[in-house]
Design a protein that fits this description.
Elements lengths: L2 H57 L4 H16 L3 E8 L4 E8 L7 E3 L2 H4 L13 E3 L13 E10 L5 E12 L2 E2 L8 H58 L3 H32 L8 E4 H18 L3 E5 L7 E4 L1 H17 L6 E11 L3 E10 L21 H7 L5 H11 L5 E5 L3 E12 L4 H10 L9 E5 L3 H11 L5 E5 L2 H10 L7 E5 L7 H9 L4 H5 L2 E5 L4 H10 L3 E4 L4 H14 L12
Parallel strand pairs: 9-11, 15-16, 15-17, 17-18, 18-19
Antiparallel strand pairs: 1-2, 1-6, 2-3, 4-5, 5-6, 6-7, 8-10, 10-14, 11-12, 12-14, 13-14
Helix pairs in contact: 1-2, 1-4, 2-4, 4-5, 5-9, 6-7, 7-9, 12-13
């Protein structure tokens, strides 16, 4: 073999040997990398096993304080940190308060935090999923004073995305020795741990809120039972006294007390119905003309007897609201003001003062801003209870209902009504000195004058209904008797039917124009009021379309009232029937003598 060929083969052999060495080195490096990666994966797997173990433990926790301490213990054990604590962050108060800890000692259960530090986006933007690492903690950090060499912390949120707390893990600094700490090694599992525990924390809050709601409703039902039994006891007792008495004075006293107790009972029922409407999102406001000073006079006039009975001076200050007319839901406005005034009278002692103030803050040709305020010199509300008094079913404390009565619904309903009116309630109160409840509402200005016309109509002398015939349709005998008794003074002639089918038969057999009005119950056997109305409207005679038909119903939800209108009725009178309201509605219907669809009246 030639010498040059031998040298060539020898060079190739050397190259192969060198390549073999390099490949062996690469294999060894890959083996080392795999060993390191396997080690890291083992560490990560161990971390996740520990995270799972602490997450499982957290599911058995029953209190938020116990959860916070378990969370801090997990940070120390899982991530081998020296100390850990959970903090509640009060953004409005610029402070942190310790709620749970592990190996964490401080003389300050609460300490202030910097506004600049609070403004850091990482602390308020949960979607960014940022774990924050400080090494060492920056000067603005509230944890800089804790002697940490490094700090790892992350926000803790509730389901409403409101910042509730901060969880912190840290390594302490012992003299000049700073522990070897590589935060990037724990960031991913720390994030998982925080998010796992955050989900459990949300569940714990939700369960606590649900339990509080159940407890509040239980207290409410207990209070409601007491509130219902009190007027019912008066009604039954006074009825029994009246049955045995022959004294006209005593009989009048019994009737007066029965009337007061019945109205109180009706108010409780209305509160429960309103609360039901609110919870189902079915409470809506009407828009009709009203004269403000007339509304205010009626409110104060209706409550003055109860104030005088307690020796309380009740006054009205509405100096720049005289003669002004607006468009809005005057009934709901009255409901709010009556609630505020009733509470003020209830919680004010003898010799105290309760004042209703109404002021036109600003006004142009289209709109006016009205301010309403109810002030009293009563017992006041403790500052720590101000945030709770508007919660449904709640009162200041459990003794309130025993001492003063009530269900805890009035203020919650009032808050919802004021919010529907486009405003909010402002409360000022000092315990032992009194309270002020105020709100401002925009109303459209009524330029038609219809509110004053309606007021004049209410003050007019009742019309003579002699010679008119009314068909009363109701399956309950006492209801028919009450209506006939209420209408007796008007001179009207009444005939009765006990179900819808009988009403259709009577109307069909009568001569045209025989009946001037039909008062129709809705829920009846054989045939209900809606079906009876549809059949009457379908009869082939002119007065079948023209005769006014008014529903008499205890159903006051909007969909129920819409149902009777769609059936062909002209409006409704709610049960229990109020004499003045019922007579007013009947007179308006008969005076208009309009065909179906052109009028609708209600005592709501």
């Amino acid at each position: 073999m030639p010498e040059y060929q031998q040298e060539k083969e020898l060079a190739e052999l050397r190259r192969l040997i060198r390549e073999s060495y390099r490949q062996t080195a690469r294999n060894e490096l890959e083996k080392e990398n795999m060993r390191i990666m396997r080690g890291k994966l083992d560490v990560q797997l161990d971390l996740f096993k520990q995270i799972h173990r602490f997450s499982q433990r957290a599911f058995s926790v029953s209190a938020q304080s116990e959860f916070a301490s378990l969370l801090a213990e997990g940070i120390v054990d899982i991530f081998q940190l020296e100390t850990s604590a959970a903090f509640l962050l009060d953004v409005s108060g610029d402070k942190l308060s310790v709620t749970g800890s592990c190996n964490f000692e401080t003389d300050e259960p609460e300490f202030p935090v910097s506004r600049v530090w609070l403004a850091k986006p990482e602390l308020v933007d949960f979607k960014r999923k940022n774990v924050i690492v400080e090494s060492p903690p920056e000067d603005l950090s509230p944890f800089a004073r804790l002697g940490l060499a490094h700090a790892v912390y992350m926000p803790l949120f509730d389901n409403r995305r409101k910042l509730e707390g901060i969880i912190l893990g840290g390594i302490t600094q012992d003299g000049s020795i700073v522990y070897d700490f590589k935060p990037e090694a724990i960031l991913s599992p720390f994030m998982v741990y925080c998010q796992n525990m955050n989900g459990i924390y949300n569940n714990l809050i939700a369960l606590d809120r649900a339990k509080s709601a159940v407890d509040a409703k239980t207290r409410f039902l207990s209070n409601l039972s007491h509130e219902i039994r009190t007027p019912m006891n008066a009604i039954i007792g006074m009825t029994q006294i009246a049955e045995r008495s022959q004294d006209p004075v005593e009989l009048r006293k019994c009737i007066a007390q029965i009337n007061i107790s019945s109205r109180h009972l009706l108010g409780l029922i209305n509160d429960v119905l309103d609360m039901s409407k609110i919870e189902e999102g079915k409470l809506v406001l009407e828009k009709a003309p009203f004269q403000l000073d007339a509304i205010l006079d009626n409110i104060v006039g209706s409550l003055r007897p109860s104030a005088e009975a307690k020796g309380i001076f009740l006054s009205l200050d509405a100096r720049n609201a005289q003669g002004l007319c607006f468009l809005g839901d005057s009934m709901r406005l009255s409901q709010v003001l009556i609630n505020f005034l009733s509470n003020a009278i209830k919680f004010t002692g003898t010799g105290g003062r309760v004042t209703l103030r109404a002021e036109v803050v600003s006004r142009d040709n289209e709109k006016a801003l009205l301010r309403f305020e109810v002030a009293d010199t009563g017992i006041g509300v403790p500052q720590d209870a101000l945030s709770r008094i508007f919660n449904p079913f709640e009162q200041v404390d459990s003794s309130t209902s025993r001492k003063f009565g009530g269900t805890g619904l009035g203020l919650s309903i009032s808050r919802t009504l004021v919010e529907l009116l486009g405003s909010s309630i402002h409360v000022e109160s000092r315990e032992g000195e009194g309270s002020k409840f105020a709100f401002q509402v925009w109303f459209d200005v009524d330029k038609s004058g219809s509110a004053k016309d309606a007021l004049s109509a209410e003050q007019a002398v009742a019309m003579d209904l002699s010679g008119r015939k009314i068909l009363i349709v109701d399956d309950v005998e006492i209801n028919r008797e009450i209506i006939m008794s209420l209408l007796e003074e008007t001179g009207v002639s009444c005939e009765c039917a006990v179900n819808g089918q009988e009403a259709v038969d009577l109307f069909s057999a009568s001569q045209e124009g025989y009946y001037a009005l039909i008062l129709m119950d809705v829920q009846m056997p054989v045939m209900d009021g809606c079906e009876a109305t549809r059949r009457i409207r379908a009869l082939p005679r002119p007065d079948a379309r023209k005769i006014p038909i008014l529903a008499m119903t205890a159903n006051v939800f909007k969909e129920d009232l819409q149902m009777v209108v769609e059936a062909g009725m002209n409006g409704h009178i709610s049960k229990p029937v109020e004499y003045d309201v019922a007579i007013g509605v009947i007179e308006q219907v008969l005076s208009r003598e309009s065909p179906h669809g052109e009028c609708s009246f209600s005592n709501d």
